[in-house]
Amino acid sequence: MAKNKAVNAEEVTPDGSRAINKFRLSDAMIMLVLGLLCLTCVLPFIYLAAKSISSNSAVLAKQVYLIPKEITFDAYVSLFKDGSMVRSMGYSVLVTAIFTLFGMIACTCAAYPLSKKRLKGKGVLTFLLMVPMYFNAGLIPTYLLYKDLNLLDNMWVLIWPLIYSPYNMLIMKTFLQSSIPDSLEESAFLDGASNLQILWRIVLPLSKPIIATLSLFYAVGRWNAYADNQYYIRSDHLKMVQYKLYQMVASATEAQTTTLSEAAAVTSTPEVLQAASIMFVTIPIIIIYPFLQKYFVKGAMVGAVKG
Amino acid sequence: MAKSKTSVPAVRTKTTWKNALKRDWQLYLLILVPLVLVFVFSYAAYPGLRMVFMNYKPAKGYAGSEWVGLDIFRKIFKDADFLRALRNSLVFNFLDLIIGTPVPILLALLLNELRYPKFKKLSQTILYLPHFLSWAIIGSVAYQLFKPSSGLINVLIMNMGNEPVPFLTEKWHWAVTYLLIGVWQTMGWGTIMYLAGITSISGELYEAAMIDGAGRWKRMWHITLPGIKPTIITLLIINLGRVMNSNYERLAVFGNSQVKDFQYQLAIYIYEKGLGNSQFSMATAVGLFQSVIGVILVLLADRFAKSIGEEGLI
Question: Which one in A281, B132, B227, B302 has a CA-CA gap of 20 to 30 Å to A222?
């Protein structure tokens, strides 16, 4: 980026007649296009936020656009009173936390040995650990396997199968190989430190940025995914909050499209409550978003080498 | 993978296993953790694939179900549902690719031309947001905006005296909505690779062009765009390799009975036939077909990328 700045600053020098920061029509056009695209990302959520704190009657009368009407927090109150969404949120936080911790352990256990050029059998081990990224047995054999492992309708089905991620392992391996100087480890080795001691005392402290990035990859991946909830979980209390939200939309969509289906119409949630539920599920992501974005961009760059 | 093997110096490979284990037993212990995980949760499922040659009945299990040779495959290639799912997957994935590729490139070019760092930072932050939202959130927001009579967009359309548009409930409108939301979700995040490519273009090129009197758009076209051509090609190849994939969550969240005709793609087929209808063998065969084609495409894409001098994928 520094280079581009330099280019912009020099834009004026050839003839010297133009002011450095002269605002041109093309600038306005670019800003207009980008501004409009940004609005498509922001306005829907402002609309939902406004809707979620408006009265039911105002919403039914279709009077709510971007500004709330007859402000009331009833929807959020009933959301918390009902408790199902809140419990589900707590459960999702728990699953995500365990998943992230285990995931980082599995990732380090794979990436550190494989980052060593001297490791005998490295080719075979890498192959064994990479194949599942390109080929999986598919839904049904996997489902039957989890059934045999007694994982169906069990919280751990959301954790164990996905904690080892070949993609994250590659990112970590690339980082270890490129950012940790071999000489550092060699001198520790000569001082009599074991491989584990080197990992724990030297490599991990130097890997804090990649640990932060990958932890976020793991956490966001787990937090946002819900298809496995649908495949493998029956009990309501074991479903993550994203899946609850999905169920709400799915039933509401069917109620809208098949107007004759009374059962669906009855189970569909009132408008305001729907808006409040969406906001409730979205807000945690928005809160940690600035943090997320910073580390994700870095990780995406490292991961880009092999995607 | 092949690369790492050959790059090991010949002297090192002669270390005996005994010495290697003595020196690195802790490393082997560590790597046992992911190995156990992939064997228990991935490889252990592979033998289950034999059901594609069986008429698998859940009640009878593998031992009790009869072998039927290639009958299952003959059956799926005559199955209208499968053919429809295959057609939809291919068509929609290609459309995703055709519409989804140029948008991030254009956005990256525009972001790069922005001369106000604060505005640039802010718009990047906002445009990356959809990448971090689950399909459940995106789907439910889209539903709130586009639903037939009370969605925000339709309310606005009706306020202007027009008929409401069935964005989500008529298959052709649905197709457009589905594709555009896909583009919207990926456009911001997609710029990252291109922006990284742009920063590595030499500033001297721009200076020279400016001295020659090239304006902003000309520089964009003759310097920036050719500068990121390798990135564009690499990403295009990677994405071509994924053209058989289908995202269950995205499809499911936009699904309803009126748009089944287009929304019915391979992921939906596998879920509904398999877990829904207990047609285990057929669902597995379709999954296997999808995986095998996927692997072939990735290998071809890798070969192709390497043959034109780009970095490989594997």
Answer: B302
